[in-house]
Amino acid sequence: MLGWLFGRKKCYICKGKAERAQTYENDNGEKILVCYKCVTYAERRAFKKL
Fold first, then answer.
1. What is the pLDDT of residues 5-36, one digit of tens each?
2. Do the beta carbons of residue 18 and residue 10 sit within 8 Å?
3. In Å, how far are 5, 39, 46 from 11, measured between CA atoms?
4. Alpha-carbon span 3 to 26, nearest angstrom
5. Cα-Cα-Cα-Cα dihedral sign, residues 39, 40, 41, 44
6. Which residue, among 10, 21, 23, 30, has the nearest Cα to 50 in the 3D structure?
7. What is d(CA 26, CA 46) in angstroms, rounded to the nearest whole number?
8. In 10 A of CB 25, how many CB atoms?
9. Which residues, other chains included, contact 22 with Cβ-Cβ below 8 Å and sequence gap of 6+?
10. What mean pLDDT do residues 39-43 have?
11. Collapsed DSSP state (helix, strand, coil) of residue 40
């Protein structure tokens, strides 16, 4: 609820807490965070790793 206050980030794919997150770029050029559990899915979706 107070994630914006404490700087907690959410995974783009599963909407869970992204503690060990990788940064990717989607097709629109926006930077997104992906948690370590969803990295394989993000690579299959051809997100560009930054």
1. 666 789 999 999 888 889 988 888 889 899 99
2. yes
3. 17, 10, 16
4. 23
5. positive
6. 23
7. 8
8. 13
9. 33, 34, 36, 39, 42, 49
10. 87
11. helix
- The Cα–Cα gap between 14 and 38 comes to 7
- Burial label, 6 (beta-carbon count in 10 A; 0-12, 13-18, 19+): exposed
Whole-angstrom CA distances from 27 to 1, 14, 19, 23, 31 are 29, 18, 24, 14, 10
Strands 48-49 and 22-25: antiparallel
Angle 23-14-33 from CA coordinates, rounded to 5° = 10
DSSP state of 42: H
Number of residues in the chain: 50
Show the tokens assigned to 48: 């560009």
Contact 33, 8 (CB under 8 A): no
